[in-house]
Design goal:
The complex is a heterodimer.
Chain A lengths: L14 H12 L1 H28 L17 H8 L3 H31 L4 H12 L6 H12 L5 H9 L7 H4 L1 H26 L3 H9 L4 H12 L1 H15 L4 H6 L11 H10 L4 H26 L7
Chain B lengths: L18 H34 L20 H7 L2 H34 L5 H13 L2 H14 L6 H25 L3 H9 L4 H12 L1 H16 L3 H6 L7 H10 L5 H21 L1 H8 L8
Helix pairs in contact in B: 1-12, 2-12, 3-6, 3-9, 3-11, 4-6, 6-9, 7-8, 9-13, 11-12
The chains are: A mainly alpha, B mainly alpha.
Organism (chain A): Halobaculum magnesiiphilum
Pfam family, one (chain A): BPD_transp_1
Family (chain A): Belongs to the binding-protein-dependent transport system permease family.
Chain lengths: 312, 294
């Protein structure tokens, strides 16, 4: 046994200090876990419970005992006059279409870049394609406002002058499409970089074997590469889906939920109910339903596809 | 390259003669698509930067002035607004502090999750992930109330706590995967040499996990930096982040386009440079460890 070590045996130091150190080492896993568990409880259990409580009372109060419980009245208001259904439909539309678009585009770009011969060109594309991720959604909204503006925007100008078509008023005629396209610009890099790393991890031998079998390119992707990458594709899409449900900044900055309620995502609707209409109960009721929906959906996905490679 | 795909492996031998031509065609098509996307990525950035450098009056003229004399007028105007400088400094301080804090909390916990047999570990990991599933708007209402009660409303400390909350799950997940990839024999060797549990963690495991810690710090920084909602709800003046300042521009009735472009540029450019500098670490962090675990 090697005795050459940078540490002294604890008993050589004063005994009280050694005792503390023993406790520290003895229960290391607990000390290491405790702060995380406390913070996690604070940010998951507390908001969930508080939203639930808030959704069941008439007026918000810090005194739980004084609260006047109104049952499901806030939920009823949310779904009858609060536009909750409309918001849920819009949110799911945005999440589904952006997720699909970003996944396909991210995969195609990753596969194309992975096949570039010159290493210089390859790293040029790889670095450039992740750049939009650095743009905050609210900055993206300002860029969108500048470039899509019907009077001063470069994009409507180019469409109007260079093509026979008349440019739509992006923010009022096709607001949902505009939101999806801007999010795609912003977050395709996320899919691209994960898929690129995933593609690089496919063993050469596997591809070689299918090449020898004479499988055409699309078959090779469909039957060899994508199945191999399944965990990567799945985790990337799950994380992106979860984050898409958080979408707020780009819509808030771009359209503020309008025109009318055309882009009123659930998160925007809750924000308005809470801070503009001053209806915390209705806002909380929507938040509870939203929370349940997202957690349930994510759990279904996790249960269905499993998390191979993440835990054993 | 593992995923090298080209026409050369075509199944039919009869096409062998055209191989050279087809290869060139594929190459052209490939770079055509990639250059198109490069343009899509770059043009909006070019546009906002060039707009920020145009003198007032030229900023939004159509047809656009492709050639113009760049001026930093908009930036000087911006710098003279104390609120912008404060907001920018706020963001830098709050986001940096939150990254340090989230690493201090998340990395040790991830280490334990990786090395010890935790009862119902799978449930614990899903619970941790679920904190990211909570839509921020659902989280922010309770915190709005509690922050007011605890005098944390509109404070940097309050915002740091919120930024930690959005990134903690990410840190734990990515770092767990990283620690899983570090062979246990490394620690065992240190333990045999007489190191305590903590010493082996600090002197052996942490250095080995450095790339993971680095990548997760970058991602945490970005996610906190781009956050708008928490600033919108939980600050009013003192702890306003730069995202909120940029937003307040759009909210005003007459938009000063040049300054809006300058503010957006000031927010984007440092992060882009930072991102390019550290891009090789990004993939490992973003993929929650699935990729490196193969």
């Amino acid at each position: 046994m090697s005795t050459q070590t940078q540490t002294e045996a604890p008993t050589k130091n004063e005994p009280r200090f050694a005792r503390v150190r023993d406790l520290w080492n003895e229960y290391l896993p607990y000390w290491f876990m405790a702060p995380m568990v406390i913070v996690m409880a604070m940010i998951t259990v507390f908001p969930g419970a508080y939203d639930l409580y808030l959704s069941l009372i008439a007026e918000p109060t810090l005194n739980v005992l004084n609260a006047e419980f109104v049952g499901l009245r806030n939920y009823e208001t949310a779904f009858t006059r609060g536009g909750a259904i409309n918001s849920f439909v819009i949110t799911i539309t945005v999440v589904a279409s952006a997720l699909l678009l970003e996944s396909v585009l991210g995969f195609v770009l990753a596969a194309l870049v992975a096949g570039v011969d010159s290493s210089g060109a390859k790293s040029f594309y790889r670095v450039l394609f992740i750049v939009p991720m650095a743009v905050a959604p609210v900055s993206l909204a300002t860029i969108g406002r500048i470039m899509l503006n019907s009077e001063i925007g470069i994009i409507p100008y180019v469409i109007n002058t260079a093509t026979p078509f008349a440019a739509p008023a992006f923010l009022s005629d096709v607001p949902l499409l505009t939101v999806v396209l801007l999010d795609t610009w912003n977050w395709t890099p996320f899919m691209f970089i994960i898929f690129y790393a995933g593609l690089s991890s496919v063993p050469e031998t596997l591809i070689e074997a299918s090449r020898v079998d004479g499988a055409p390119l699309w078959r090779r992707y469909l039957h060899v590469i994508i199945p191999y990458m399944k965990p990567v594709v799945f985790v990337a899409m799950l994380i992106r889906m979860i984050d898409l449900f958080r979408t707020f900044g780009v819509v808030y900055g771009l359209t503020g939920g309008g025109p009318g309620t055309a882009t009123q995502l659930v998160s925007i609707n809750i924000y308005e109910q809470m801070f503009i209409n001053n209806q915390p109960g209705v806002a909380a009721a929507m938040a509870v339903v939203y929370l349940g929906l997202v957690v349930a959906l994510a759990n279904v996905v996790i249960a269905k596809v499993g998390f191979e490679g993440v835990w054993d | 390259m593992a995923t090298r795909d080209g026409p050369a492996e075509s199944a039919t031998g009869s096409q062998r003669l055209e191989k050279g031509t087809r290869e060139t065609l594929v190459k052209v098509a490939r770079h055509g698509v990639l250059l198109t996307w490069s343009f899509v990525v770059l043009f909006p950035l070019y546009w906002v930067v060039s707009m920020s450098l145009k003198p007032p009056g030229q900023a939004n003229s159509l047809p656009p002035d492709w050639v113009f004399l760049p001026t930093v007028y908009n930036y000087i105007q911006l710098a003279q607004r104390g609120e912008f400088v404060t907001a920018f400094a706020n963001s830098v301080i709050m986001v940096a502090a939150s990254v340090v804090l989230v690493l201090l909390i998340g990395v040790p916990a991830a280490y334990v999750l990786s090395r010890w047999d935790i009862p119902r570990e799978r449930d614990v990991l899903v619970w941790i992930l679920s904190s990211r599933m909570l839509p921020p708007i659902a989280v922010v209402i309770p915190f709005f109330v509690i922050f007011r009660a605890l005098n944390l409303f509109d404070t940097r400390i309050g915002m740091v706590i919120m930024y930690v909350s959005i990134n903690l799950s990410l840190v734990v997940w990515v770092m767990k995967a990283f620690f899983d990839g570090i062979p246990e024999t490394l620690e065992e060797a240190a333990r045999v040499d007489g190191a305590t549990r903590f010493q082996s963690f600090r002197k052996v495991i942490l250095p080995a996990a450095k790339p993971g810690i680095f990548s997760v710090a970058i991602i945490s920084f970005i996610f906190a930096w781009i956050e708008l909602l928490f600033g919108l709800v939980l600050t009013s003046f003192e702890a306003v982040p730069v995202t909120l300042y940029v937003y307040s521009f759009i909210g005003s009735r007459s938009i000063e386009w040049g300054m809006l472009a300058a503010a957006s540029t000031a927010m984007i450019v440092p992060v882009v440079i930072f991102l390019i500098a550290v891009n090789k670490y990004l993939a490992a962090g973003l993929s929650f460890g699935v990729v490196i675990k193969e």
